[in-house]
Design goal:
Aconitase, domain 3, single chain, alpha/beta, 16 helices, Aconitase, Domain 2
């Protein structure tokens, strides 16, 4: 029987079906300090054990200070409590923890692929919506709630309703200044923030085939911004090259056996998708968000659209912008390069190349936050850190940082920030902050030019 890639992985993990719901076995459970404390406490209250500590891995990321001098004594009481609770819980229940002292520490969606924990064919869950990121490696990965975190702790299984499948076919060769971030922003701008609701999205087409794995991770990361719980891409030779030799990837003969076991992970025929959307990126331009959700995005040289709804009116008022303006008119003061969307070594290489032998504009504060310790170490080895610092940027330690402002990294009220993160909701980067989503390339250009411009 022919199946989609998603259906093949899902069906292999179904234990039992009841009342139109499937009990799925979970191969990998990733946790962090924000959504795990209540789940651990639930185990204690019910006198239950952690079913598979060997399939549970933890990292500190959301509340971790990114200023090195602030990591020893954390000033925010809630952050300090959550981080301590994670350390204590992992010690008590036997969970591997990549804490702030670990060379493998980083944002949860970064370290899974980096360490070879996230592999093709796996079911992966985490108490974080952007878990869809891992689907870029051919895994069935999705975010779960705190009560579900406890369920997986206790049983290594969870009940799920199987979604429909959507094929998003990306075609064409993008321009040199266009990246996966621009593609996903365009897709959401054209189809809305709910187009993927009720679907698992598989990205495919010649553009995807030619796309580096790191860019695929960025693409799948923002599937949730289009309403989908899952984003997935079939594993290919690029995927195998990416995962081979990593810390938790099977080694030697075991890797050869593993490759054979995933050789059928592809969609047999695109006609099997319940719905198909096609996007030709041949003439796509760099994208910039102007409003308060990712669908409020335009080409870099396009005028902001007219007001058509109360939501539009509210967004313009919050952002301090007007219809008819262009991206270059936005009074940018802050640039953030980082997050689980665009904090990889390839993202830093792109931004550093733009900034090489240049200096950021006088009106700009630019902060660069690698997504993991491995990225930071690689950036140091390649001289990227030197390039950023010589350009006038501030280099930080890894963490979620300005993406969601859960610790001290907050954009000042009414400040416009050019950001490589994934969400531009009201207050996302700090109270009354104003976020403009874009690629690392355009963010770096913005930092140099002092406004949103390709120069």
């Amino acid at each position: 029987m022919q199946k989609t890639l998603f259906d093949k992985i899902w069906d292999k993990h179904v234990i039992v079906t009841k009342d139109d719901k499937d009990l799925l076995y979970i191969d990998l459970h990733l946790i962090h300090e924000v959504t795990s404390p209540q789940a651990f406490e639930g185990l204690r209250l019910k006198n239950r054990k952690l079913r598979r500590p060997d399939r549970t891995f933890a990292t500190m990321d959301h509340n971790t200070p990114t200023i090195a001098a602030h990591r020893d004594v954390i000033s925010d009481p809630l952050s300090a409590e959550q981080l301590k609770s994670l350390a204590d819980n992992c010690a008590e229940f036997g969970v591997t923890l990549f804490d702030m002292e670990s060379e493998y520490n980083g944002i949860v969606h970064m370290i899974g692929p980096e360490l070879g924990l996230s592999l093709p064919g796996k079911t992966i869950v985490c108490g974080d919506s952007h878990t869809a990121t891992h689907g870029a490696l051919g895994a069935l990965a999705f975010g779960i709630g705190t009560s579900e975190v406890e369920d997986v702790f206790a049983t290594q299984c969870m009940w799920q309703t199987k979604p429909k499948t959507m094929g998003v076919k990306i075609t064409g060769k993008p321009a040199d200044n266009v990246f996966a971030k621009d593609i996903i922003l365009k897709l959401i701008a054209e189809n809305g923030v709910s187009f993927g609701t009720g679907y698992a999205i598989e990205y495919y087409g010649d553009t995807i085939e030619n796309m580096p794995v790191e860019e695929r991770l960025s693409l799948c990361n923002m599937s949730i911004e289009g309403g989908a719980k899952f984003g997935i891409i079939k594993p290919d030779q690029k995927t195998l090259d990416y995962i081979e030799g990593r810390l938790y990837t099977p080694q030697g003969e075991e890797f050869e056996i593993f490759k054979e076991s995933i050789s059928d992970l592809y969609t047999d025929d695109e006609s099997l998708f319940d719905k198909i959307i096609i996007l030709d990126v041949t003439d796509l331009k760099p994208q910039v968000s102007y409003g308060t959700n990712p669908a409020m995005t335009v080409d870099i040289d396009s005028k902001f659209p007219e007001i058509k709804s109360p939501e539009d009116q509210t967004a313009y008022e919050y952002m301090g912008l007007k219809p008819g303006m262009k991206a270059a008119d936005i009074p940018i003061e802050f640039v953030f390069i980082g997050s689980c969307t665009n904090g990889r070594i390839t993202d830093l290489r792109i931004a550093a190349e733009v900034m090489r032998n240049k200096t950021i504009a006088d009106n700009i504060t630019c902060v660069v936050v690698p997504g993991s310790m491995q990225v930071l170490q690689q950036a140091e080895q390649e001289g990227l850190v030197d390039i950023f610092e010589e350009a006038g940027c501030e280099m930080r330690m890894p963490g979620c940082s300005y993406c969601l402002a859960m610790n001290e990294d907050r954009i000042a009220p009414e400040t416009h920030c050019a950001s490589t993160s994934n969400r531009n909701f009201e207050g996302r980067q700090g109270e009354r902050s104003r976020t403009h989503l874009m690629s690392p390339y355009l963010a770096a250009k913005t930092a140099i030019e002092g406004r949103i411009s390709l120069g």
